[in-house]
Amino acid sequence: MKIFSGDDVRRTVSMAAAVGAVRAAFGELRAGNFVLPARQVFGDGAVLVMSAYHPPTGTAVVKKIGIALDQVPAIRATLIWTGSGEQIVADGTSITTLRTGAVVGVATELLADPDATRLTVIGTGAQSADQVRAVLAVRRIAEVTLVGRDAGRAAALAATLGEEFPEVKFTSGTDIEASVADAEVICCATSSSTPLFRADALPERVHVNAIGAFRPTMRELPRDLLATATLVVVDQEEAALEESGEIIDAIEAGVLARSGASHGGSPASTTATSRPSLLDLGDALADPPAVSGRTVFKSVGVGPQDWAIAKLLSES
After folding, report:
1. What are the tens digits of pLDDT across the range 195-205?
2. Pure H helices in the chain
3. What are the pLDDT digits (tens) for 65-108?
4. In this structure, are residues 282 and 26 in contact, taking their beta carbons and an 8 Å threshold?
5. Which has more confidence, 5 or 84?
6. Is 3.40.50.720 the CATH classification of the domain at 103-301?
7. Which of 3, 61, 84, 292 has the highest CB neighbour count under 10 A?
């Protein structure tokens, strides 16, 4: 048995490697090469158990997550990987933040302006640093703004990341709408139950990632953004319809369609007579869409992301 602490995970798996592994895993997911049991949820989301089995290799991963939003860190997890007579036990907290950052890197590389240089991250919790690392892994970002309710915490995170990325200008603040006004990439990593900003506060061309809201009662994105986006991509539609408050709300309001429900199945540009429809990340990677205007990626997390990072650990 191999055991990996959080520090071991960080030393073993770079963000660039994680992005590549997660990208490949979504290709495997699209090809039908995973068995994904339904995520088990206990205590109104206080405890989650998720798993994935990869028949082509006979490998499997199981992760138990405890979530306490009033604690630091809010997420505590343990991961177990099995396959080929090998077993790994690893710190699931570091894997969760790493793989969540990695999928944002995959989506940003696909959907953001190739020349984007300005990033805004809303939220200063445990997920935020890996959101920055992931976007910097796929775009030549020159300026990063970190926004949170606690100005001191935002400033401290900016200082820490500034030491890690001295070539990037980091600033911090508490005014969300001012911070998104000229952003080209936005990452939302909060536990908010209400939208973080108004859609009309955004530039006309921007890519927005949302990873923080993981319950049907939670919201980070305004309904108007989902109604008017040129593309709304999710990690997996089935998972999003179970757990993403923003996606559930927009579909129930009739401003967002399920995949295949608009223009014969193609993701729709919003007009007076059409509405955007969901697109799975695996499908978008297999047939990259033309991008313009405002694009959205919403992630609730799926087992193949954990499997991808555990596979890298097993190969180390």
Report:
1. 999 999 999 99
2. 6-12, 15-30, 92-111, 128-138, 151-164, 176-180, 223-228, 237-243, 245-252, 281-286, 303-314
3. 998 877 777 778 999 999 877 899 999 999 999 999 999 999 99
4. yes
5. 5
6. yes
7. 61
Q: Are 72 and 93 in contact (CB under 8 A)?
A: no
Alpha-carbon span 221 to 253, nearest angstrom: 14
Cis amide leading into 73 (omega within 30): yes
Q: Which token pair is 127?
A: 């997920």
Two tokens at 242?
A: 């179970």
Tokens of 152: 């001191």
Residue 235, classed as helix, strand or coil, is: coil
- The CATH fold assigned to 2-96+304-314 is ornithine cyclodeaminase, domain 1 (3.30.1780)
| Cβ pair 127, 97 in contact under 8 A | yes
Beta strands 185-188 and 118-122, pairing class: parallel
Residues listed for the chain: 316
Which residues sit opposite 50 in a β-bridge? 63
User: Domain spans of the chain?
Assistant: 2-96+304-314, 103-301
Distance CA(129)–CA(156), nearest Å, equals 12
The one-letter amino acid code at 282 reads: G
